[in-house]
Structures are given as C-alpha cells and as structure tokens.
Design a protein that fits this description.
The structure is a single chain. With about 120 residues, the protein is mostly beta strands. It has a single domain, classed as Sandwich (Jelly Rolls). Helices cover about 0% and strands about 50% of the residues. It is built from no helices and 10 strands. It has strands at about 20-25, 30-35, 40-45, 50-55, 60-65, 65-70, 75-80, 85-90, 95-100, 110. The termini are far apart.
Length: about 120
Amino acid sequence: MYVVDEKDYEYRNENLNGPKYLMKGPRMNFALVQFQPGKDFKAHYHNVMEENFYILEGKIDVIVDGVVNHLSPGQMIHIEPGEVHYVVNNYDEPVKMISTLAPYQEVDKVEVDNYTY
C-alpha cells in the first residue's frame, strides 16, 4: 500500500497538457490527463493494454477506429487493445480526466501516422 499526492507530479507536456502519471505499474497505469482547448495527442493503439478515460471536468472528443465520441463529465469510455484512438479538445475550456491502462506493459504504445477520421 502507498499514498501519492497529485501535487508531487507534473503533466508530461508544458502548459498543463497531457498525462500526469500517479502510478506506472506493476499491474496498471493510473494518470490524470489534462488538455487545454485545441490540444491533442497522436493517434495510437496498444497491443496488450486496455485503456479507460473517465471525464472529470470539461468536454473532450475521443475518436476510436474512426468513430467520434463526444464525452462530458461523468462519462467513461473503454478502449480495447488494437483499437486506434485519438483524443482532441475541440472545446473552449480545459478538460481533466482519469486514464487507466492495464495490464501494465512497459512499452505497448504504437503510434499511427497520418491518422484521419
């Protein structure tokens, strides 16, 4: 058992964008993810890990295998291994969400170039 404090971690990218991992392994990843308006991350998929996003604040578009899902607070999306997903904040306010990935794999992300939907 251990306890972490979000304040002890930083978002991966500048200006409070991207994931802030509070736990990486040994069985799953747990992160807070934040995107400012207009920000996104590259389309990708995972070979083994499944991913979940639970929306805390704001709105976000999560595109999975070409299908656009407009999500808002209280909604969750589950993404299976092999499903290409792209996340973009097309709205005028920041979004904050929780991301979980399991089972933990040190390297399991496959980026997709020139993704269109």
